[in-house]
Design brief:
The complex is a heterodimer of chains A (278) and B (280). Chain A is an alpha/beta fold. Chain A has ten helices and nine strands. In chain A, the strands form two sheets. In chain A, strands 5-6-7-3-8-9 form a six-stranded mixed sheet, sandwiched between helices. In chain A, a hairpin with a 2-residue loop joins strand 8 and strand 9. The longest helix of chain A is centred in the middle third of the chain and has 14 residues. In chain A, 49% of the residues are buried. The chains are: A alpha/beta (278), B mainly alpha (280). At the A-B interface, helix 2, helix 3 and helix 6 of A face helix 7 and helix 8 of B. The complex binds adenosine-5'-triphosphate and magnesium ion.
Chain lengths: 278, 280
């Protein structure tokens, strides 16, 4: 699974001397990230480089701050009143995600997210693409082609091409999740964050979505939160284990997935990954 | 519970039955035809009795629809402002005010219309009496404004957070999120509010008696005086004698049936509209 990472064309202005976790350049550099909800520290002092074009899996027990971490990567934490994020997050092109004046809407176009529960707009399939694409400045004429491309990419085109004008919510759960992935892909993001994308799906649909995510490897950077350790083992190049320490979520282990899963240094992580705890 | 529901449902039938028995003499006397063919309303006249209600029915519907047309954009804008733009303190204050507005008696609205709206319209269109279709619509519009605002706001609030999160996750701004995601999802609830407002407005009597001018005619302009059916009933019931009274009951019956048709038609359309769009 952990094939040597392919090198991708990448902007030159990556901070020099990046302490790479793997052998790829960092696409997202997170430094000293702390997330608080009205004074309650959910996540403390996370520092990690997310490698370009590869799959990074975040695992850990419930409530250890995985979603908080993911949401801070594209500023969805802004939606939560009383949520305070400190530390810094940089994109490879130098964009400072955490900067108070960052263009959040453009940022979210570049760092997309797919949630646990598929959340299509309860409108036609076509509208589900038109609405966000129009927001990001696509012209009406270009939208059908873009929609077809991404629907083909997620393997949904043959299933829905004759019902694009029909309501999206008539699709099955697995189809909906693929629709949401296609919708996120349509904006041509550099990164997609997946927050437990398979846990609301049946095993079969889950497998399809997992294969789809795996097939995106190399095209864009993927960060996936999953409770399914076997899944993480199957698809991840890099892994990070989150754990609650002193009442706050921290990252207790991270590195190449093969190493993290085979010989974790942290005892809690070891027990968790062996299935003995968590 | 079931029994109480039956009482509520039975009440409607009881009222219609009551109207029907009282209207019966007029129906029996074959005067129903005149209701829709006569152009004048002079039921008390000995020499030439005329029973045309078309002008008054038209007035009722015109005043009502115009009131909704005025109140809907304002109420919806207000609801959107409250939900997505206003600081919580302002929102709470404004909502309290609107709740108070619901409690203001119709006669006070009518009085306000007479003292404020009517003179304003006279100044706006010199030579007109001021008491007019437009005056009635404005006053009614204010009366239903809180209903539309508060129900719309509830509908906006009922849009699932997951939808807002989806829109935010796609990098959508507030304006497009409201326009393309929230409003389509809330339109069912907003429609219910409009329906309530329509029903409230069409039955309204006291305010329209004071500001509409009470001349039974089909208006040619917004500034023409009109006389909705409710006004006619309120104004004439006091002195009406037997056959006249039956005619007024007939008019009331027609209003009830029209309202029922309206409500039925709108809820039918809503049930019929595309199933993908959620809402209340
Ligand atoms: N909006 C919020 N307001 C207050 N506290 C929150 C909020 N969201 C999360 N928390 C708290 O922050 C901590 C981390 O939550 P988070 O959702 O990030 O964990 P998670 O690892 O994603 O858990 P799960 O696996 O259950 O999804 C939890 O203790 C949670 O109660
Ligand atoms: Mg979570």
């Amino acid at each position: 699974m952990n094939a040597p990472s392919i090198s991708l064309p990448f902007p030159a202005d990556v901070p020099a001397g990046s302490p790479a976790t793997g052998d790829a350049t960092a696409c997202l550099r997170v430094t000293g990230l702390t997330v608080q909800y009205r004074g309650f520290t959910a996540l403390r002092d996370i520092t990690i480089d997310i490698p370009e074009g590869e799959i990074t899996a975040l695992v850990g027990p419930s409530g250890c701050g995985k979603s908080s971490f993911l949401h801070s990567l594209n500023r969805l934490t802004d939606l939560v009143p009383g949520c305070r994020v400190t530390g810094s997050i940089h994109l490879a092109d130098g964009t400072e995600v955490t900067h108070p004046k960052a263009d959040v809407l453009t940022l979210r176009g570049r760092v997309g997210i797919v949630f646990q529960r598929p959340n299509p707009f309860p409108q036609s399939i076509r509208r589900n693409f038109e609405i966000p694409l129009r927001e990001h400045g696509w012209s009406k004429e270009d939208i059908p082609d873009r929609m077809e491309t991404v629907l083909r990419q997620v393997g949904l085109w043959n299933e829905v091409h004759d019902r694009l004008h029909k309501s999206a919510i008539a699709l099955s759960g697995g189809q909906l999740q693929r629709l949401c992935i296609a919708r996120a892909l349509a904006l041509e993001p550099a990164v997609i964050l997946f927050d437990e994308p398979c846990s609301a799906l049946d095993p079969l649909a889950s497998g399809v979505v997992e294969d789809l995510i795996h097939s995106l490897r190399g095209q864009l950077t993927i960060v996936i939160v999953t409770h399914n350790l076997a899944q993480a083992r199957r698809i991840a190049d890099h892994a990070a284990v989150f754990w609650v320490r002193d009442g706050a979520g921290t990252m207790v282990e991270h590195g190449p997935a093969a190493r993290v899963f085979s010989s974790p240094a942290d005892p809690d992580a070891g027990l968790y990954l062996s299935g003995a705890r968590g | 519970m079931g029994l109480l529901a039956l009482v509520a449902g039975g009440m409607v039938l009881l009222i219609i039955g009551y109207l029907l028995t009282n209207a019966w003499p007029a129906i029996q006397a074959g005067r129903l035809g005149g209701f829709f063919t006569d152009t004048k309303w002079q039921p008390g006249s000995q020499r030439d009795p005329r029973f045309g209600v078309v002008s008054m029915l038209t007035a009722s519907f015109l005043v009502t629809f115009l009131a909704v047309a005025l109140a809907l954009p304002v109420g919806l804008a207000c609801a959107i402002f409250h939900r997505f733009y206003a600081p919580p303190v302002l929102e709470r204050w404004n909502r309290r005010m609107l709740e108070l507005l619901i409690g203001v008696p119709a006669v006070v609205f009518g009085f306000w219309g007479l003292m404020v709206v009517v003179p304003l319209l006279i100044r706006l269109a010199p030579g007109t009496p001021g008491q007019s279709l437009l005056a009635g619509s404005i006053v009614l519009g204010f009366m239903i404004l809180p209903i539309i605002t508060l129900t719309s706001q509830a509908a906006l609030q009922a849009v699932p957070a997951a939808q807002l999160q989806a829109a935010a996750g796609l990098g959508m701004g507030r304006a497009r999120t409201i326009w393309c995601v929230v409003l389509p999802a809330a339109k069912g609830g907003i429609g219910t509010g409009v329906l309530l407002a329509l029903a409230r407005a069409i039955g309204e009597t006291m305010a329209v008696v004071l500001v509409c001018g009470n001349i039974p005619q089909i208006p040619k302009s917004l500034f023409d005086p009109v006389r909705p059916i409710t006004s006619t009933i309120a104004l004439e019931m006091g002195y009406a004698t037997a056959s006249h009274k039956a005619l007024l009951f007939c008019a009331g019956l027609i209003l009830v049936l029209c309202t029922a048709l309206l409500v039925g038609w709108i809820s039918f359309r809503r049930a019929d509209s595309d199933p993908g769009t959620g809402g209340a």
